[in-house]
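PROTEIN DESIGN WORKSHEET
SECTION A - STRUCTURE
LENGTH: 94
TOKENS:
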């Protein structure tokens, strides 16, 4: 099935300016499966999302549609065809 990863402006330097990356994943894909596929397709971007142990970096939130899955089932969260997965780095300031 086809899944889109939405890339915000702060991460587009790692995608040659692409705002959306279309990936083919298995029908029973989870967020973890999508991120593994992204690692093979865009390793530089992937390193900004997951750490060496496979966990999400602390400053990154992942949304499946409108649902933040950071604190839910996280990488085991199932995804469905046509859904957008948005990777959103935290922004701080003062």
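SECTION B - SEQUENCE
RESIDUE ASSIGNMENT:
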């Amino acid at each position: 099935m086809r899944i889109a990863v939405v890339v915000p402006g702060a991460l587009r330097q790692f995608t040659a300016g692409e705002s959306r990356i279309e990936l083919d994943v298995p029908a029973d894909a989870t967020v973890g499966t999508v991120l593994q596929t992204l690692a093979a397709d865009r390793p530089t971007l992937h390193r900004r999302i997951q750490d060496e142990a496979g966990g999400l970096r602390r400053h990154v939130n992942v949304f499946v549609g409108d649902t933040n899955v950071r604190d839910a089932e996280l990488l085991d969260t199932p995804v469905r065809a046509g859904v957008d997965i948005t990777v959103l780095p935290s922004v701080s300031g003062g």
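SECTION C - NOTES
Strands lie at 2-6, 20-24, 60-64, 67-68, 84-89.
The chain has a mean pLDDT of 90.
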